[in-house]
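Person: At home tonight, work slowly through the protein below, taking as long as you need, and write a paragraph about the fold.
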Amino acid sequence: MPNSTFSIFYFLILFLAWLFAIPLLLLMSLKQKYKKSIFGRFFLYKNPSFKDNSIWFHACSFGEIKSLKPLILELKNVSLSATTQTGFEEALKLSDNVRYLPFEIFLPFWIKSPKLLVVSEAELWYLLFFIAKLKSAKTMLINARISDKSFSSYKKFSWFYKKIFENVDFVFAQSQKDKQRLEILGAKNVSVNGNIKSASIPKPSKYFPKPDKRVITLASTHEGEEEILLDRLGLDLNDMLIIAPRHPERFERVRSIAKKYSQDNGLNCKFFSQSGFCECDVLVLDCLGELINIYAISDISFLCGSFIDGIGGHNPLEPAFFNNILVSGKYIFNQKALYPLVDNVYFCDKDELGGILQRDLKFSSLYVKNTIEPILNQIRSII
C-alpha cells in the first residue's frame, strides 16, 4: 500500500477511535494527572501550533525532557513538545515555546514547516514523522532504544515500524544492540552514540544541610516497592530514611505507607510538602524536582523501578554523580546503556535485601562520557 494511501487509511482509523474514546477521555481528564494533558493533546485546548519552530524537539515525559537540556542549551529558537503533564512542566524550564504533542489526527493541520524534527527515545508516532517529512522537514530519532522486553512486540508489527522509519532520516542509538534491533525494524543511517543522559551533569537547585544521621533514599519508587523495601531493610537508630515516589499521583498513598511504618516502629515521620527538608527518622519527598538535591546529601540510594518487573529501572547516573552507595533491583531493561557507565552498583532481588545495610559497601562512581557532540554536529549541518 503506498504511503499516501496507507496514511489516509491510518488517519481514518484513528479518527474513528478518537470519536469512540471521547467519553473515556473526558472521564480520564477528571484525574489531576491527566487534567491538562488530555485537553491539550486530544482537544487542542490552549495548545496552538508553534509560531516559530525551525528546530522542534519532542520527548515523552519528565526524564526524557530533562535529558534534552544539554542539547537545548547549545541551540537557539528551539520548540519543545511533551506527551505528559510532568514532561510539559519540565519543558517550560528549558524553553518559552512549549506545547503538548497533539493526538495524531490533529498533526496534519497542526504541524507547520519545521526545518528539523528531533524525537527522543521511543516516541514512534507514524503521522508525526510522515507529516513532518511531507512538510519538507528533516527528521531525527535520538537516544533510541528498544528494550529486551519490547523487542518481541515490535517484531510482530515490524511492517508498521518499517513505514515509520521510511520517514526518519537519522537515528542515534544508545547501544550496538539497539542499533541492530532498529535496523531490523527498518531504520536507516543508524549510529551508536550512547545515552545522552550521560552528558548531563546534575546540579542541585538548592543545598540542604547534611544530617548527622546516615541518609538512605528510596528513589523513584513505584507501586509495591515501598513495602518490599521497608519490610526487609532493617534501619539502624542512626538512619534517616527518605522516600521519593516517582509519580505525584502516588504521593498520598506513600504518605500513608510511611506514616504507618513510622507508627509501627516508633519513628517520627515528616512530609516535605508540609515541613520542607528537616532532619527526622522518615521523610516523604512528596514533590517533584527535589531528588537531585536529595542525592547530594544521601549516603545510600536504592534506585527503584527495578525491584518489580515491568518498569525497567531509572537513571543511575544521578546518584552515582554524588557518589552514593547505589543499590538496584535486577529489572533494569530500560537502562542497560547507562549502568555500564557506573562503577560499584549492587544488584539484588527482594529476597537479598535483608542485611544489605549492614554490609561494607563501596561508593559508586561515574564514568563521564559526552554523547551530544555528534548529535549537535548533525543538527547544525541541517539548519
User: Anything to note?
Assistant: The mean pLDDT is 93. The first strand starts at residue 55 and ends at 59. The longest helix spans residues 3-28.
